[in-house]
Amino acid sequence: MKAHHFKTLLANLIPLMLLPVLILGCKSYSENPYNYRIPEQVEDGITVGTLSDAGIDTSLIQEAVTRIRNGAYGAVHSILIYRKGKLVLEEYFPGYTYKWDAPAHQGQWVNFDKDRPHSIMSDTKSITSTCIGIAIEKGFIESVDQSIFDYLPDHQHLKTDGKDKISIEHLLTMTPGLEWYEWNAPYSSNKNPIIGIWFSDKDPVSFILEGELRYEPGTHYSYYGGNQILLGEIIRHATSMAIDEFSQKYLFDPLGIDSADWNVRFPNGVIEAAGGLLLKPRDMLKVGVTYLEDGRWNGQQILTKDWIEKSAMPYPANLSIKVPGEDYGRSGYSYSWWTKTFTEAGKENNIYWAGGWGGQKIIVMPDHEAAVVFTGGNYTSKVRQFGVIGDYILPAFK
Asked: How many Å separate Cα 27 from the centre of its chain?
């Protein structure tokens, strides 16, 4: 039974990580240059427009898409650009679906499109964070400064050795001080603490909280999806709704999203709230636009502006983190969003994003009134999507 659940986990989620590079070859992309086309207008609440309407250099974007088609930036499955209130680029590319037990995790070769949900991997963490922000705004949770044990009634016996000082904010920022760290062991090993949960006889919450407290909470960053699993359970106890039900009612329904799928659960029913969510790329964009618009979607306030601001700025203990397998160097980490300042033509650009293994990204660019979405399949090779940002998208913004 445990092996079955382990296989289920691996087939649906695995947070940001670096595996040994293994390139087994891929299908060739078209060598034909890309000719720009306006995104399709559909009744989903997103208004479309042209690149020129949004003040974007069409020739640079055409070159970027041509290079993506030709494989210059690895396995990119989609790119969407939203600027100044409109979706102005939406392109999908052929590629392999994700399959754990296949070479290089390459499943079926398909033509990705707007109607195919994608595993957003660790972008899920940012959605879980969003749900915490909504729960606070709605009054279900009092404050991020509360002890996590205020909302874990079945695990009060683990409130020992200073763990009572772990707050909700510490989980959001991955600074609870517990021993767990995902990037020290391969995800094929049960010695990796996010995989080890599935092999343990303990329930997930107990497994996580029984870890040794090695640092004062709030002082040390350690990447571990167990933090978001705990946040999902905090939402369940605070609202009497599991995170799938809560997110649908208070986030996805207001955004007009009806196909969100929290598709990974532990044997006892706990939802894996760190990396198992499926969303369509346009739905990922809706989340990004909500953050871009200070928490509003089509005039409705979904999140507070204060929550958006905290998500856009790195937590003090998280100013310089190197993410394995990514091309953007060191970055900060906030309320489960990555943060960085890029310099283009001598001007600083503050950017923050949800990031998931293989190249799943929801990028928010407030300085340019823009949001960008990528999906991809770079599970065994370096993700190079920020090369597209730096080489083409930022220079194309006028």
From this structure: 27
Q: Return the structure tokens found at 388.
A: 């597209």
Give the C-alpha separation, 330 to 340, whole Å.
8
- The pLDDT score that the predictor gives to residue 160 is 95
Residue 33: name the closest of 5, 1, 61 by CA. 61
Q: Report how far Cα 258 is from the mean position of its chain's Cα atoms.
A: 19
Cα separation, 25 vs 357, whole angstroms: 20
Q: How far apart are CA 90 and CA 73, in angstroms?
A: 17
Nearest to 137 by CA among 350, 295, 368: 295
pLDDT tens digit sequence for 294-350? 999 999 999 999 999 999 999 999 999 999 989 989 999 999 999 999 887 788 889
pTM of the model: 0.91
pLDDT tens for 211-253 read: 999 999 999 999 999 999 999 999 999 999 999 999 999 999 9
Residues near 333 by beta carbon (within 8 Å), at least 6 away in sequence: 173, 174, 221, 314, 315, 318, 321, 339
Residue (of 173, 180, 177) closest to 164 by Cα position? 177
Among 383, 349, 391, 388, smallest CA distance to 372 is for: 388
**Which residues lie across from 364 on neighbouring strands?**
352, 371
Q: What's the distance, Cα to Cα, between the start and end of the chain in Å?
A: 56
- What separation in angstroms does the CA of 240 have from each of 87, 128, 143, 278? 36, 16, 17, 23
